[in-house]
């Protein structure tokens, strides 16, 4: 009987960061995908209540290895870690969070014109693989000093002439008297998977991917409703892209219609202004929870 149960409850194992910059957004995308699980402190694994999924909580650097070894079937990890660890895994989908860049920075008073100025110099980094590839491509020979943390203090303590580290706002660099000179890699969190998932696990991964895509898409879009005078409907409908075309319904008040559409966050304010200029009134903007296209 016990044996039967394990077969029936075959689960997809997904590894996410245990704590740190990707932790909350990883949990969020799973939850918004309708997957419920507990994430109690000090937990190493958690089973979803309503989906055949087991979540493993790991250090981000270890995730590609676990996925390559098949201990986890999938994972959520930064592209920087994917590139640095260089494991045999598949990048399935970029997830739109954890955005950062890997940059070279030098002391702010340093005389720096191009990467060639780092010839023969020492660069401290936690990303020796990505950095050495970049230097090779640029034909610059420099010494790479691999450090595991606090990279940004390396120049001030005399350990290195430059650093290569992750940056998002640049405030850490600034606070340490450094200036960013080259962006060598751009990264965001991505869903990865093993290269040899069996049929059932592939099907589960596909389901999760479908949901992740719907969540991702919904984050970029807003649902808008407005009242429009009928004589302006043509102009207003031209401004609105919508999924297909906008929905137009007559209002009880004669000569007016209600117009519904979906708009992209990037063009949001621009579109709203145009709508107002064209006589739209009572514009309501509503977040979209999921978007299936
Ligand atoms: P762990 O204990 O899991 O090894 P960590 O200290 O190596 O954690 P975090 O600082 O939590 O890692 O960063 C995790 C990931 O978040 C990075 O690998 C990167 O993909 C992403 N990230 C986004 N913005 C930044 C940033 N400004 N600095 C560092 N990482 C960032
Ligand atoms: Zn790490």
The tally of helices reads 9
Report mean pLDDT, rounded to a whole number: 93
Residue share in helix: 25-40%
How far apart the termini lie comes to 42 Å
Placed side by side, the strands forming the largest sheet appear as: 2-3-1-4-11-5
Q: Please report which band the strand proportion falls in: under 5%, 5-15%, 15-25%, 25-35%, 35-45% or over 45%.
A: 25-35%
Shape: flat
CATH topology of the largest domain: D-Maltodextrin-Binding Protein, domain 2
- Tell me which CATH architecture of the largest domain applies here: 3-Layer(aba) Sandwich
Topology pattern, helix = H, strand = E: HEHEEHEHEEEHEEHEEHEHEEHE
Query: What are the bound molecules?
Result: adenosine-5'-triphosphate, zinc ion
Number of domains: 3
Given this structure, which CATH class of the largest domain is correct? Answer: Alpha Beta
Stretches where pLDDT is under 50 for at least 5 consecutive residues are none
By CATH, the superfamily of the largest domain comes out as: Periplasmic binding protein-like II
The count of strands amounts to 15
**Helix-strand makeup class:** alpha/beta
Oligomer: single chain
Overall radius of gyration: 25 Å
Largest sheet: 6 strands, mixed
């Amino acid at each position: 009987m016990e044996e039967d149960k394990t077969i029936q409850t075959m689960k997809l194992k997904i590894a996410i960061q245990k704590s740190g910059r990707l932790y909350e957004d990883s949990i969020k995308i799973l939850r918004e995908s309708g997957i419920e699980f507990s994430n109690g402190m000090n937990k190493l694994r958690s089973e979803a209540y309503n989906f055949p999924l087991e979540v493993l909580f790991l250090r981000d650097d270890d995730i590609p290895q676990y996925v390559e070894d098949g201990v986890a079937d999938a994972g959520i990890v930064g592209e920087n870690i994917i590139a640095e660890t260089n494991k045999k895994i598949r990048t399935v989908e970029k997830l739109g969070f954890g955005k950062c860049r890997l940059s070279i920075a030098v002391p702010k008073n340093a005389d720096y014109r191009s990467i060639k100025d780092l010839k023969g110099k020492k660069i401290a980094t936690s990303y020796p693989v990505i950095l050495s590839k970049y230097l090779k491509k640029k034909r610059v020979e420099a010494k790479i000093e691999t450090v595991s943390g606090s990279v940004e203090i390396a120049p001030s303590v005399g350990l290195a002439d430059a650093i290569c580290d992750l940056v998002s706002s640049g405030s850490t660099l600034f606070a340490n008297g450094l200036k960013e000179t080259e962006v060598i890699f751009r990264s965001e969190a991505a869903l990865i998977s093993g290269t040899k998932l069996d049929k059932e696990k592939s099907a589960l991964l596909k389901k999760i991917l479908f949901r992740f895509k719907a969540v991702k898409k919904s984050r970029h879009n807003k649902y808008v409703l407005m009242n429009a005078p009928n004589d302006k409907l043509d102009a207003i409908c031209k401004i609105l892209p919508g999924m297909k075309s906008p929905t137009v319904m007559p209002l009880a008040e004669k000569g007016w219609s209600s117009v519904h559409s979906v708009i992209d966050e990037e063009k949001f304010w621009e579109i709203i202004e145009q709508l107002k200029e064209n006589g739209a009134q009572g514009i309501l903007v509503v977040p979209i929870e999921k978007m299936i296209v």
